[in-house]
Amino acid sequence: MKVEYAVKELTCKFRCHLVARTLSGNPTIVLFSSFSSMNSGYISDSGTLNHEFIREKDDFRGRRRGNGGIGLLGYEENNDLKSNLCCFKLARDNFDGAMSGLDKIKQMDFTENCFSGRFKGTFGSRKNEEELDGNEDVEDDRYDTDGEFRVLNSYDRKCKQDVDTLTYERDESEFKHPLVKETWRLIELRSRWNPKYEEKLRHLLRSLKPHQVCAVLHSLADERVALNFFYWADRQWRYRHHPVVYYAMLKILGKTKLCQGARRVLKLMLRRGIQHRPEAFGYVMVSYSRAGKLKHAMQVLTLMQKAGVEPNLSICNTAIYVLVKGNRLNKALRFLERMEIVGITPDVVSYNCLIKGYCDLHCVKDAIELIEHMPLKGCPPDKVSYYTVMGYLCRERRIADVRELMGKMEDSDLVTDMVTYNTLIHVLSKHSHSDEAVEFLREAEERGFRVDKVGYSAIVHSFCQEGRMEKAKEILTEMFEKGCTPDVVTYTSVLDGFCRVGKVDQAKKMLQQMFKNSCKPNVVSYTALLNGLCRSGKSLEAKEMMNMSEEEWWTPNAITYSVVLHGFRSEGKLSEACNVASEMIMKGFFPNPVEINLLIQSLCKEGRANEAQKFMGECLRKGCAVNVINFTTVIHGYCQKDDLEAALSVLDDMFLNNKHPDAITYTVVVDALAKKGRIEKATELTMEMLRRGILPTPVTYRTIIHRYCQNGRVEDLLKLIERLLLKQPYKSAYNQVIEKLCCFGYFSEAYNLLDKVLRTASRIDAHTCHVLIESCLMRGYPLLSYKVACRMFNRNLIPDLKLCEKLSKKLTLEGNLKEADNLMLQFVERGHISHSVLVSC
């Protein structure tokens, strides 16, 4: 091994020396050698990315000014030989630093298959690279500082703001380009990835123009996949993202909660020296806001200040929007005041955000006052300002205030048009104010406006949701009379409404009417009808209709299969439900864990735990998202059948399938074992739970206490309770132990545990003592009850007077007069009863 290591080390030094010798002779060879060394350092011997080496490559790209005769996509660079030579020296230094050691030497011979495997791992799983970027701090709800306002101090009134030329605008023609379509197709095949596909995608990447790369990113339905493709493309040789691609990626992430990914893309821009404008930071702020992280969203302003980027009106409006969305209206108002102080004049967008904030806090009067105040600031309100307040008033059904506001809008030279009426109709219909929506519909028609099918459909849908099918049919007939032909959305709303009220036959007639009026039903229409059939107990008919889907020229989707599956399950036809689930999986529609668990639970209730396990195994093999709850349900099913060996076998299978049991899983098994008297095995599993770092829940405590007390294993219980309390404190643990011991007649053991309870002298402790006193009294142990009462007095806990009077009579009957008198004297000494009352007794 030492000889082999020495040979490889000499080989490495020889290669480095060859690079240095070639530097002054042939730049082309140096370019190839240096970049080969960089590519060699991408991947470690374990098949993972060498992040340190990637950062060196990023620094190399950031410093590079020329391309040495090799063009980089979407970026023009100067072909300066001196700059290239400097870059080659830098690459050689990186090569020397990265390739030291035997592990680095192994990287030089890394195969293309391993590289393809890395790509497959990126696109084949749903783990995002932003998830590996570190966890951020938990958002603090008390966050209310103004530290981020300092960024406004960097605003220069005299500096002219540049026009943003880096924003990508969607062009439908680019989405239809063959290169874009083929790239999208290859990315969608990521589940069946191989080196051949990757090489083809790499070749396509070098042929794509910057705006075509943006089109590929926008065409991907899953933003996580788009982000992974962005990262993968950035690592490819002979390719470099154009700045417009960065902005396109940030714009996509700004519409999601993938804030970590957005922040990484922004930092990548800063490291690469890409031109960064305030809009880029705004996208990251919005992404944080969508994720509910207001503090981190506002800290992006500090990051922008450190980057030397001056704020503009756009980023200020974004900050106001983020604050309003995070329920920090007062801070948004302070931010607006600070904007005006530094010379940034708010526009109508700024004020509209504040109006939305007032309405969200139900301060509609303040919103109206702000609208009236806007002209004094030189910024008259627009229709959006009025629509925002009108929307709130419509939700509250304040129609008179809506009409008053419409009058104010017309006084401000803003004409009430069809858009206004459509807005009111939609908001009222959405909040089940159908009659008021019809009033505005009539008013719009009287003023000469023609309501389109969208407005009519909203009203029809609202009536159907309320179950007022006659009114819905009237509106539908009115649409025909006025030449407004209903579309598939309108018909589907009526069809679904009939199914909701149980009139499935009427829904079938509506489906036939759709065909007569040349309106082809879609999968939503059929799914609504199938749902109505299943609700009426006609799941077999629904299944037959779904089987005829090919003849009817429609294709069931995942929701369609789920409707029929749950229809069979609710009718108790579990075998048919399992068959539908299998067919669903075969068609490529995977049921979610909740749907799987409902079916498993139904099978277990009928004692068919074996079938439940078989069904779960099939789902697991087909790639469904089976979780720990599904396994726990199967385990509970076996425990109900008293088949503990099968339950323990499923518990072992969880580890084999990388599904780690939780506290509920262990509690179910421990309860079943202890119920059968297998205390040692139950204790072993409980200790295993603690070793795995799983903390017991209150249910775990109650279960263990009940079963151990039931079996009379008090010493084992106390030892186990002490172990559990070390991991997870539980204040009433010993209280529950005493009460359970009383239930099973272990009074002396319960009395011996009073020291554990009377340490705190709380109400819970008093209740536990009362339980012990009453239990002992009922079982014929009045002296033991007397001792408990005396110990309560010693801890300044006053026992229940009526219970002690009952105890005193019992002691008297058994001849224990001294104890009976002493018990009542304790109450007299503490002033709870008078001496005269005691004497009369």
Helix and strand content put the structural class at: mainly alpha
Strand count, sense and barrel status of the largest sheet are: none
Spatial shape: globular
Percentage of residues in helical conformation: 55-70%
Strand content: under 5%
Total number of beta strands = 0
Rg from alpha-carbon coordinates? 37 Å
For the termini, the CA-CA separation is 99 Å
Describe the structure.
With 841 residues, the protein is mainly alpha-helical. It is built from 47 helices and no strands. Helix 18 packs antiparallel against helix 19, helix 19 (364-373) runs antiparallel to helix 20 and helix 38 runs antiparallel to helix 39 (714-727). The termini are far apart.
Topology (SSEs and partners):
Layout: H1 2-23, H2 27-40, H3 51-63, H4 81-98, H5 102-107, H6 112-124, H7 172-175, H8 178-188, H9 195-207, H10 210-219, H11 223-234, H12 243-253, H13 259-272, H14 278-290, H15 294-306, H16 313-325, H17 329-342, H18 348-360, H19 364-373, H20 383-395, H21 399-411, H22 418-430, H23 434-446, H24 453-465, H25 469-481, H26 488-500, H27 504-516, H28 523-535, H29 539-547, H30 558-570, H31 574-586, H32 593-605, H33 609-621, H34 628-640, H35 644-656, H36 663-675, H37 679-691, H38 698-710, H39 714-727, H40 733-743, H41 747-752, H42 754-757, H43 763-778, H44 782-794, H45 801-813, H46 817-829, H47 835-840
Helix pairs in contact: 1-2, 1-4, 2-4, 3-4, 8-9, 8-10, 10-12, 12-13, 12-14, 13-14, 14-15, 14-16, 16-17, 16-18, 17-18, 18-19, 18-20, 19-20, 20-21, 20-22, 22-23, 22-24, 23-24, 24-25, 24-26, 25-26, 26-27, 26-28, 27-28, 28-29, 28-30, 29-30, 30-31, 32-33, 32-34, 33-34, 34-35, 34-36, 35-36, 36-37, ...
